[in-house]
Structures are given as C-alpha cells and as structure tokens.
Amino acid sequence: MNGDHDDEHDHGEFSELSEMDARVRALETLLVAKGLVDPAALDGIVEYYETEVGPHLGALVVAKAWSDPAFAAWLRDDASAAVASVGLAGRQGEHLVALENTPDEHHLVVCTLCSCYPWPVLGLPPVWYKSPAYRAKAVRDPRGVLADFGVELPAGTCIRVWDSTAEVRYLVVPMRPAGTDDLREDELAALVTRDSMIGTGLARPSAGG
After folding, report:
1. Which residues are catalytic?
2. Quick one: residue 92, left, alpha or beta (phi over 0 = left, psi -120 to 50 = alpha)?
3. Full set of structural domains in the chain with CATH
4. Around Cβ 2, how many Cβ atoms within 10 Å?
5. Is the pLDDT of residue 184 over 60?
6. Dihedral sign for Cα atoms in the order 149, 154, 160, 166
7. Residue 159's beta-bridge partner residues?
8. Residue 23 confidence (pLDDT)
C-alpha cells in the first residue's frame, strides 16, 4: 500500500462494504422507488462533496498552519473557529479538534461506531475508513494499521488513537516535510494527503527535500 497514491485508491483490507452502508443503500433505493427522494438531488449532494469539498481544502488548512505560527496556535486552541476563518465550516465539521504529529507522537483517527468524519475539510470518507476491519484493527493494533498503509514509524514514537464521534471530529496535522522552508502555501498544500490528515499516512516529501 503506497502512501503516494492514498488519495486515489482505497486500501484492500479495509474496503469491504459495511452492513450499515448496505442498509443505507437499500433504504436509498426504496425511497427513490417510492418517489420520496429525488436521485438527482442525492447525486448533486454527493458530487458537491466529491468535487467542491474534499481533502484539498484540509490540505490548505495544514499548509497555512505550517506557514503561519499564529494560525497554527489558533488551530490547536480552537480548530473549529480557525477553520471557519478560512471559509470552511458546515455540517459534520462542528467541534473540530486538530492533532499535531511530532517526532515523538503520531495521531491516528478512527470512528469505532460508524464513520464520523470532518466533511468540510476532508470531503466524503474513504470506503476503508467505514469498514469494520479498519475500525477494529485501528484500536487493537494501530502500528499494524500503519504498516498496512506503508507507514513505518520509529519504535519510540507513541501512537495515539482518537475515536471520532458525532460530537467531536479530528483533523491530523502531519509533520512538515524537511526541505520545504522556501515553498509557498499552495506548494505545501500539494504535499498534504488525505491519509496524512487521518493519520494513516505521512505528508509527501518535497521534490527538493
């Protein structure tokens, strides 16, 4: 599982359709068949979150935190307000908490009950995030999950697992890659992956790093 492609591919071990997803799809089919839901409206909502809202927005937040110490401090203290200040707020983004990775501590986010996820900054959750396999293994063996995603951390790095809920959602701020001091914010944002903001990946290295 190559982290360089984590924005394009789902990870096999965790990609199975959950029972809840199957029920949701069956209910959606029934509601559409009865004329109670407009499939075009559903498609429009999904398209909005897939094209207009997505990890590229969270990447901009991370890049700003890397570049602006004052914004980084605000993000640590009140992530919801900091993110709202750059125009990213809305449903599934309430009570956002930012978690900063360091050489000593790595954060991994999971939702053990369903698939709570910060939509305004990351868009729709990947299929593997909602799978029972990921939800169980992330709690039981977080270092093994990281290995499944191709991430090997030093033995001394503490891995902290955070359980996302309807009340609190998390955004991981990955460590800034070396050799990026001269990059603009948009160039930094290009190094931030979806998986790195969940904790199952790392930021991409810079071309000159």
Report:
1. 111, 114-116
2. left
3. 14-198 (3.90.330.10)
4. 9
5. yes
6. negative
7. 106
8. 60
Q: What is the pLDDT of residues 48-97, one digit of tens each?
A: 555 556 899 999 999 999 999 999 999 999 999 999 998 876 554 568 99
Strand locations in 53-207, DSSP E?
Answer: 96-100, 105-110, 158-163, 169-173
Cα separations in angstroms, 99 against 29, 102, 105, 162, 206: 38, 10, 10, 9, 22
Per the CB < 8 A criterion, the answer to whether 96 and 89 are in contact is: no
Confidence of residue 123 (pLDDT cuts 50, 70, 90): confident
The whole-angstrom separation of Cα 34 and Cα 147 is 46
Q: What is the pLDDT of residues 191-205, one digit of tens each?
A: 999 999 999 999 999
Q: Are 151 and 79 in contact (CB under 8 A)?
A: no
Output phi, psi for 96, to 5 deg.
-80, 140
**The two structure tokens encoding residue 197:** 């903001």
